UniProtKB/TrEMBL annotation:
Source organism superkingdom: Bacteria
Species the sequence originates in: Hyphomicrobium album
BP term (GO), one: regulation of DNA-templated transcription
Pfam family, one: RHH_8
Top-level taxonomy: Bacteria, Pseudomonadati, Pseudomonadota, Alphaproteobacteria, Hyphomicrobiales
CDD domains: RHH_NikR_HicB-like
Name assigned to this protein: CopG family transcriptional regulator
Amino acid sequence: MATNVRELRPKSGDLEKVTVNLGYVDLGHIDLMVHEGFYSNRTDFIRTAIRNQLERHSDVVKQSVARNTLDLGLRHYTRADLEAIRASQQTLALHVLGLLSIASDVSPELARATISSITVLGALHASAEVKAALADRIR
């Protein structure tokens, strides 16, 4: 099987919706590029522009990730992970660039007992109860 196969479109669960307000002239330029066939649609243009900017500044991002000791990408904590942390009588200071996910079966009490602080540049997926329990610890 080929090893150079990559996913062209992320699954819908891998996406976060962002709303952007654009001026009419900028939007017209995007529509022109789509009409001329350079991009399949507005979203394709905007994603490509964002990826190009991220690539352009990748060295700065890498330095910042190292300096701030951020976990890069997806970080998921299960109930078992947090129970092991509690058993070791330790707490977590979580710093994530990407997606921090806390399993749906984690209770607010377990989350408060094991997570001392959360810094997320990206998205935090957790139950509303866990988010409320950690609200004073989220930066």
